[in-house]
Amino acid sequence: MNNAIYITERDARRLNLLIERTHPAEGRVHEYLTRLKAELDRARIVPEDHLPNGVITMNSVVEIEDLSDGEVDTYTLVFPEEADASEGKISILAPIGTGMLGYRAGDEFEWETPGGKIRLKVLSVSARPRTASPGGVL
Length: 138
Hints:
The chain is α/β, with parallel strands linked by helices.
């Protein structure tokens, strides 16, 4: 399994703002923010033009396989206010959302979820559309 993850400078800024601006009223929210912060701390933060091909960033469309049962799902990784399960839009603060950030197509990783530890494989990553950032922060 590949342990190196990559995050763009732009996404790192936006995610750090999300962490700073989110008030964890409940234990789960605090846990998710802590895990996201840990991922940011271990990531290689790079300018967007130095990002390796196929890396999962915010707004990426990702095809991911659960290695325990072979189930394949497609998600778009989004900020919490854009999350919509019916459209496959998964929040960065959802356990799998945080877990997949920064991995590349072909990578396998393990992540703890409320239902237990899961092993996932990134099958494909589609280019993400440019979107306005929350609060006008670029």
